[in-house]
Automatic annotation (TrEMBL):
This is Rnf-Nqr subunit, membrane protein. One of its GO terms (cellular component) is plasma membrane. It comes from the Bacteria. It comes from Solobacterium moorei F0204. It holds the Pfam family Rnf-Nqr.
Amino acid sequence: MSEKKIKGQGFFSRLATENPVFATYLGICSTLAITTSLNSAIGMGVAVIVVLTLSNILVSLIAPITPDDIHIPVYIVIIATLVTIVSMFMHAYTPSLFTALGAFLDLVVVNCIILGRAEAYACKHTVLESIVDGLQQGCAYTFALLAMSLIRQLLGTGGLSFSNPFTNNVVFAFRIIPEGFEIPMFTEQFGAFITFACLAAGVAAYKNHLAKPAKKGAAK
């Protein structure tokens, strides 16, 4: 992800313009696959935040003593260990969520965002800076999952629902689109690509809009 920031951007603006999914197209595989419901999106988002933040901490700590020729395998082992721990926790305490995420939970090991931040940022910065970076990148990824899942679940089923992953009790469930007017296509793979394309195009247009005043100022 680019470290350059458009002057005057706030935190929520950067969630879009510097989003790892919509701006740099990382982590698309899981984003397309598990965003059919809010439960899956939030579950995957939390898992990535935990793994990303902890891996950044560990990489920052061991980077000075890790030989350059084996640092990538070392980082992968760290990430794989953390993913296994998170997976075991979910299997024990949130079995329905574990089943819903399926193989895509294990694929967090090779998520480009996590390994990319370890290689590009954590190994070169302090523990505190790495923690902040992990939380920021994890929240940005979760934001992308939520945006995708809200649109797909709403258009595909006509409403929104969320259940407590620990007890499976329904937290909320309501219908917005009248029955018979939902578009089931959005719960399928085709709908995932359409939703992603529209959101990515929107982010690109927003970035261009923000860049225009900066270009005009530089030209004066």
